[in-house]
Amino acid sequence: MSAQQTNETDAFPEVQPDDGMSGGYRDANPHLAQSIASTNSESLSDIRPVPRVAIQAFCESQQIAAVIEGASTDRRMGKAHVKVQLGGIPAAVDFYQTATTPNLIIVESRLEGDSLMSELGKLAEVCDESTNVVVIGHRNDVHTYRELISQGVSEYLVAPISMADVMEVVSTLFVSPDAEPLGQTIAFIGARGGAGSSTIAHNASWAIANNHSSDVVLADFDLAFGTANIDFDQDPAQGVADAIYSSEQIDDTYLDKLLSKCSQHLSLLAAPSNLDREYDFVPSDFTNLIEVAQRSTPHVLIDLPHGWTGWIRHVLSLADKVVITATPDLASLRNTKNLVDTLVDLRPNDDKPLLVLNQCNVPKRPEISVAEFCSPLDIEPTIVVPFEPGLFGLASNNGQMISETDPKHDVAASFATLAQVVTGRREIQPVEKSSVSSLLSRFTRKR
To answer: Please, which pLDDT band fits residue 430 given cuts at 50, 70 and 90?
Structure first.
């Protein structure tokens, strides 16, 4: 948080902590002592994932408890163990008479002045030296803030607070300010088999790497039938299977050995694309690989197979952005609607998935219009890719991307647009909508 994010006109300068209370919590973190006000922004894109830490919150109001509970379900808090209960500071003091204090205690209190300091003094007596304490108060007062920080409180937030406030404080406390920024993960999945999600993912990765001169790792997670090695005319001896089966030991050095260079800025983690073994995984098998790739590359694009397993769901929950590729037909619309609804529930604090409509305007094939397709989804398509079998067939046979085969084609420009959107360089342009059709009701009747 910054000094500009206050609820009043006062700016609260950084306060250097004193030696702190006797007994109690750890001295204030100077990187946190900047403001007593909570941010109103719900943007969480810059918040780093939290490591495995134990957090316990003691709230006085259901509203604050609900906000902390909501933050605990966010993907960036996936490793943290969070427990929320009511009772405020008195409940915390009573609880820690016989229990070990966690890495972080969050307490809400409506008390002010000496009464608040007295209650926190009691809490300090039962806290371990290494415990951080964050206080959520209801008075936006610079003197209260300075007094709390001088007594060893890590941060003071003013209610009402947002989930962004909670995660920002936790991340700042437990993630080193000198840590390298994490790369962005973008997961691609098809609404149905044959929708062309892999082709979209491969061309998007090429566009990011070559149009923006930004390093990209393309990970082909369709281990049995992946086509990235064919599309990029690569035949690596090792790839994503070796990384997953060695997920506990994988590090930056090992990952570099598994990557196949496709261009100056694009590296491929290829799938074995054979049926020598069964590829059954648990969700955690992919976590370490994704984290290692994020530490070394600005953009990690994940090409997921069409399916629904525990590990596919887990990878989608971890991704910073999700791109769904669909075709303009009824089955694809139904599946896209199911995917969007599920991902909104799975990732409540993230933007909705991006949509690519592919294989549009096939001659003599009845199709759902773009506007009718998007109306029940309440999302705009990022790009609409026309049916161009000659262009895509030539690129595939030559082991090239569309931008290599015909850089002046409109489809190449579409992939350039997609690259700009997924990297945050461009906003999605709205598509004019027609009247809403009754397509979704047809799903219900058929069921």
So the answer is: low
